Amino acid sequence: MDVKITISFDESVINKAKRYADENNISLSRLTEFLLNKVPSKNYQSLEDFPISDWVSMVGEGQAEYQTKARKNKDIKKEYFKSKK
């Protein structure tokens, strides 16, 4: 069951995240859910231990350049649903 929440981000971070989600054929909500699901999935001692934290910081500061191979929507959905198990 989906639950709605309201969160606030810097506008430039949201714009970058929307572009990233669009380029990867996933909604911003599902991208956020995917990332937030990763945080408690392992026993990280702090957010700095979380492997994506450096990349997220760089995106927020406008320094990151992240490139991916073109992937089919079907493959992205399969990966997402596999992560939900």
SSE blueprint and pairings:
Elements: H1 11-23, H2 28-38, H3 53-61, H4 73-83
- Estimated structural class: mainly alpha
In quaternary terms, these chains amount to single chain
Total beta strand runs: 0
Low-confidence stretches: none
- Number of contiguous helices: 4
Radius of gyration: 14 Å
From the spread of the alpha carbons, the general shape counts as globular
Mean pLDDT: 76
Beta percentage is under 5%
Helix content: 40-55%
How would a crystallographer describe the biggest sheet? none
- How many domains in all? 1
Distance, first to last CA = 15 Å
Order of helices and strands: HHHH
Give a quick summary of the entry.
With 85 residues, this protein is mainly α. The protein contains four helices and no strands. The model has no long low-confidence stretch (mean pLDDT 76).
Quick tags:
single chain; 85 residues; mainly alpha; 4 helices
Protein described:
This protein is an all-alpha fold. It has one domain. The chain has four helices and no strands. It starts with 10 loop residues before the first helix and ends with a helix. The model has no long low-confidence stretch (mean pLDDT 76).
